[in-house]
Amino acid sequence: MANDDKDPRWATENLPDDPEQLKHIIRLILEDDSRNAQKCEEALNAMKSLLSSWRWRVGNAVMSFAERTLRRKSVRLATDHIIDLLNRIALNHRKRDAFGVSAFLLASAFLLAEGSDLQFFSGKDAKKNYTKKHRGLLEEFLQSDERLIFKEADSPDVSILLVLYNRAELTLACLRSILSMVRGGYEVVIVDNDSTDETERLLERVDGATIIRNDENKGFLLACNAGAKVAKGKYLLFLNNDAVLLDDSVSKAVQVIEQGDGIGAVGGKILLLDGSLQEAGSLVWNDGSCLGYGRCDLPDKPEYMFRRDVDYCSGAFLMVPLALFDELGGFDPVFAPAYYEETDFCLRLHENGYKVIYEPSISILHYEFGSSQGNDATSLQKRNRKAFVANHPEYLGRKLKPMEANILKARFASQDQKKILYIDDRVPHCHFGSGFPRSNFILNTLTELGYQVTLYPLNFPNEDDWNTVYGDIPDTVEVMLHQGRKKLGEHLKSRRNYYDLVFVSRPHNMEFFSQVAGKVFGHDGWPRIIYDAEAIFSLRDAAKYAVFSGKKDEELEKNIIAETSLVDKADLVITVSPGERNTFARYYSGEIHVVGHAMELNPTDTAFNDRQDLLFIGNMDYNGSPNVDSIVWFVHEVFPLLLDKLPGIHLKLVGTNESSEIQKLGDNPQIELLGRQESLEPFYSAARVFIAPTRYAGGVPYKIHEAASYGLPVVASELLCEQLGWKSGEELLVANVQDPVKFADQCARLYSDEALWQSVREAALRRVESECSVSKMKKMVETAFDSA
């Protein structure tokens, strides 16, 4: 449909309030505008992905849970909320073409049809209202000609096993969620325990599933074992029939097992009908009692958003390799008919050297106790707990007592690993530069060494969300997003005896931490503290002062003393280089370790003559920062001179560039602002010379180590050469930033002399290999933290 010939039915003022009428209009327009069928299908698929995303589900869960907490009336259906929102969006898009608006309206249709299970119910009548809704859907289904058709697979990746005993309305919702959410090859295995409701009528409408019909109720456990015997998948997923899959949880569970080492089972986040948590993994106490971690809490709090090795995960969603399930003999019949069977099985996995993983991106909506008999369930749990305790005396002997104060430690299967609070400005993504690649390396190394790390981004707690935060840090790290400075004291108080070590990077963070910790811990009870000086910032500030004033900073000694005095409470100090260590040792008598930059060699093989242009890579967000200052100086003072020698040369700037001063440089056609790039290798491979004209900085320049590791020769300032301890004319070329002519000459010389270029490249590669060995740096991290 052309933009100038819009269908009046899309006009916002003509949209009906009734959702069913809205669905009807959408169907009509799709039918009589078949030319756009493909666009509509794409819009619908995109909206399905959005609505199954974690952000969508959590947003509605938070809304529902907040309203329940405030004791308001039952929340409106999530579908009603989104329709209001979509209508408002449509109102703001009057001038968009019909299918710009239809993408939003199609979402309404999806929500009201296939996506209807995404709504939440709250209040004391939550289960009653949920049941009423799904009873209606069941009746509609049974009165229609619809069938549930599952594709048959000879060698499925996953066998999804459902055990039924009545509650056909819940089973229908579960089966529909499988059809909607599961991708890849799978089979459905259904074991019906002689249901007496509409279950048989429902199963008559199911095609492609393997169905076992028992002539009596044999209980959940025996039915599971029977279903497992006919399963053909590589992996077996136990899924309660009173659960609804959210997102592509099945594929994610498979990925966790296949990408991990020694993983015996995987579970996920289980949401109650109101959107709050039933559990985020479960823990076992030393008396055999159990606890679902996080019950009734908000599901997107940081403590539930990272991957953990746990005691067990609920059988409401539990994936295990089928061969391993068979090897261990399945669920132990001693726990028949039900309860404690998955807990016992998971502990047997642990006892055989396997891990049980809680994965937060996996989630289901769970009715809970859909087929149980109330008092009967309680009595079974009590009976089976005794058998469970008798089966696992050694494992339970290592567990903690059932106390609220022990929950944080007990949320991990092992309590032997040291726990570290890791404080830095922000989540240390490598693309930020400015010491964050090194911080990222330390963080990654600590998790490899087995530490349980809680990362606390102190000054920029909101720049990441749960979709971006784990881009280049381990997903086993607990990240305290959205807390920041205001909540550090509360965090330390609530975890007063939890952390074995506190790691604090950068002087301003150490100063703030010391102030807050002093109020929390007083004179006694401080945890052991490692201060990562990263760089002596007073030296950088003095260099900056000299650049702009032309004078020596007379306050330098005083400032260094003030900065180094911040470590009074530290048990150990880490610096980035031997030179920084020696400076620090003049003012601090305690233990000092060096952890430098870690760098794998990755030299690109593009020949000299096939390369062109200058390259700079780094963060350029802040006016006045060393990177921004250096590039602005180079462009204004050096680049015009260089263009006289090399007229066609371009300067390529890679990295985030929100600085207004950097943005102005984009007006020059020979300066390319390329922004942040996912892969840097193509840029290192194409460029001929890397520039590092830094006029003031502290520490050791990561950017030079990185460029050299890719085999790209560097022209740098004298300051950076001094910090590196490299030799001018050998591992890099050097010029004084007070002499733009010399800097331009050095750039032109390296750019034009192939023999010199090759010599510098090879020498720098040797230097990086010697100084930045990853194994060497990991050992330095291990030694430092062992000493603490």
Q: In summary, what is this structure?
A:
With 788 residues, the protein is an alpha/beta fold.
Q: Termini, distance in Å?
A: 69 Å
Instruction: Give the CA-based shape.
Output: elongated
Spatially, the strands of the biggest sheet line up as 17-16-15-18-19-20-21
* Low-confidence region ranges: 1-13, 29-117
Helix content class: 40-55%
Give a structural overview.
By secondary structure, the chain is of the alpha/beta class. The protein has a 7-stranded parallel beta sheet with strand order 17-16-15-18-19-20-21, sandwiched between helices. The chain starts with 18 loop residues before the first helix and ends with a helix. The model is unreliable at 1-13 and 29-117 (pLDDT under 50).
Quickly list its features.
42% helix, six-stranded parallel beta sheet, 788 residues, alpha/beta, seven-stranded parallel beta sheet
Q: How does the SSE layout of this entry go?
A:
Layout: H1 19-32, H2 37-51, H3 54-69, H4 78-91, H5 98-112, H6 126-143, E1 148-149, E2 158-164, H7 168-181, E3 186-192, H8 199-203, E4 206-207, E5 210-213, H9 220-230, E6 235-239, E7 243-246, H10 249-259, E8 263-271, E9 277-280, E10 282-284, E11 290-292, E12 308-309, E13 317-321, H11 322-327, H12 341-351, E14 355-366, H13 375-391, H14 393-397, H15 407-410, E15 419-424, H16 436-448, E16 452-457, E17 478-479, H17 488-494, E18 501-505, H18 507-521, E19 528-532, H19 537-549, H20 556-564, E20 572-575, H21 578-585, E21 592-594, E22 614-617, H22 626-645, E23 651-654, H23 660-665, E24 671-675, H24 681-686, E25 689-692, H25 702-709, E26 714-717, H26 718-724, E27 733-735, H27 740-752, H28 754-771, H29 774-787
Parallel strand pairs: 1-4, 2-3, 2-6, 3-5, 8-14, 15-16, 15-18, 16-17, 18-19, 19-20, 20-21, 22-23, 22-25, 23-24, 25-26, 26-27
Antiparallel strand pairs: 6-13, 7-14, 8-9, 10-11, 12-14
Helix pairs in contact: 1-5, 2-5, 4-5, 6-7, 17-18, 19-20, 22-27
